[in-house]
Amino acid sequence: MQRKELMLPSSMVPSFARGINILLMDHDTTSLLYIASMLEQYSYKVTTTELASVALSLIRKEKDRFELVMANVDISNIDSLSFVRVLLKEEIPIILMSSRRNEIFSWRALVEGACFFLEKPISFDDLKYVWQHSYIYKRRSKTQLEDARKPEQEILLNRGNISQGKRINEGGDDVSRNIANASATDDLRYSINTDQNEKNNKQMEVDAQVHIFDENSVKESQNACNMEQHLVMANDQIQEQGGLIKTKRSLDDDRGGEKKRNLNSDNENSNSFMVPTEEKGKEMNENNNGHVKKKRKPRIVWTSELHLKFIEAVSSLGDIKARPKLILQKMNVPGLTQRQVASHLQISDNVIRDLSSNTGSLQTLERIKPSVVGQPTLNSNDFAAAGKTQGAGTVQVENASGISSNVANSGKSLKQFSEGNQEVKAIAVLEPPAASSVNAGKSAYAALLKFLDEDEEEIRAGLGGELKPADLDRYCEWLREALMEKSEHSE
DNA sequence: GAGAAAATAT
DNA sequence: AATATTTTCT
């Protein structure tokens, strides 16, 4: 009897737990896709990303969407620690995956509230009961009040122990003892990323100096110093904006008269050390004509580390308190200005730098500015106002009858779409990614699935026999090569 | 101080 | 052309 034929993996998951949403994060693409494909076979709906900051953005955007997060935490990656911290605060069950090298880190995470620790490599069977973590966690939060009386450690360890008895380091006692040894914490900072992979030179320099932002490990002052490196300035070219260029705004100004600018007067209260020293105090220059030109601030780059810090701050403050001033304070990044934070906050909801999880389907954002509703006509630019800052797409409305029509370029305003006094709901619809960019990830993934489907024999042959969990690395490596060959053939 | 939107840089 | 960040306006 081959279990394979008779039993679909998904049938091993109880019906009420099928299709739960899992957010999967793994810095290693191959492993990401591999695990995702396994999870999907169990019926889970998987959203994948390689970046912690993206994962957090997703979670922040749709709080309740994910019932379980599985993350490969790799100490050599700066994001991991902060990522785990933030996640734990979000009250989403989290399963950590990592190699033995990071075991202690994972233990600590367990104590802080993670559910489970899977040691890599992950096997198919390891994932079978993954749903239980989301389920049990849900039940637990219902009875949280009662639970709250228990000593906290106990609860946390209990959660950590919910295991299928496999792979988890059995027994809360072991875990707690090890943690109690406290050397665990010390081991958490150190070994900063030596294998910087894809980043460009500028980034690499920065990364090399970044420290993990661990409250315990980094003193503010020191932190300050290090974080300064985060502010990657775009080159110094300052653009000239002579009075000759008439923009909408400059026209307005021409007649607007008085309330002209205080130009740089309030230019960054105390933080102008971002400006290269020679430039200081020269915010205004003269050009040949003696005309005054204003200097534009060098742009900062919101690296994923910086963004992560931002999200961390926002998340710890909560949506209501998360205002630029407090966020800035919390982030404690020297040289970063409140305006920059404000500006980033403005768009942060829409910031998703990596859409590897996007299947290419339409993404709707239900948000519309009142000003757009009242506008006489709508064009595709109004798409921006409907929820996305800028970019291509259309604005649709949905009226009471549920009819949804495309408003862009229709020559009507949203108001005209409403019936009676009923409010219309405007929906910004993102254009699906261009076919070309429908992520390499997606097609690679599809290819992988197909490949797995069709060529199992070949795979086994290629590996010379039965697959074992321990073979994962070898397997992935082999797969990668096989896939590459394949795509070469198909050219 | 905040947020929206325009301007401008990449 | 599209996106990212800064600046202006309210």
Summary of the model, kept short:
This protein has 491 residues and is an alpha/beta fold.
- Beta-strand content bin: 5-15%
How far do the termini sit from each other? Answer: 40 Å
Structural class: alpha/beta
Q: Which stretches are poorly predicted, pLDDT < 50 over at least 5 residues?
A: 1-5, 142-288, 350-392, 418-423, 430-455, 467-473, 486-491
Helix count equals: 22
Count of DSSP E strands? 11
Looking at the structure, what is the overall shape? elongated
Q: Radius of gyration from the CA trace?
A: 26 Å
Helix content: 40-55%
Write out the strand line-up for the largest beta sheet, numbering strands in chain order. Answer: 2-1-3-4-5
Main sheet summary: 5 strands, parallel
Topology:
Layout: H1 3-6, E1 21-25, H2 29-41, E2 45-49, H3 52-61, E3 68-72, H4 79-89, E4 94-98, H5 103-112, E5 116-119, H6 131-142, H7 144-147, H8 152-161, H9 172-180, H10 183-186, H11 201-209, H12 220-228, H13 248-256, E6 284-286, E7 292-294, H14 304-321, H15 324-331, H16 338-348, E8 364-365, H17 370-374, H18 382-385, E9 393-398, E10 404-406, H19 414-417, E11 425-430, H20 440-454, H21 456-463, H22 472-489
Parallel strand pairs: 1-2, 1-3, 3-4, 4-5
Antiparallel strand pairs: 6-7, 8-11, 9-10, 9-11
The protein binds a DNA duplex (10 and 10 nucleotides) through residues 234, 237, 239, 241, 247-249, 252-253, 259, 261, 294, 296-297, 299-302, 323-325, 338-340, 342-347, 351, 369, 371, 384-385, 389-392.
Description:
This protein has 491 residues and is an alpha/beta fold. It has 22 helices and 11 strands. Helix 2 packs across helix 20 and helix 15 crosses helix 16. The chain is elongated, with a radius of gyration of 26 Å. The structure holds a DNA duplex (10 and 10 nucleotides).
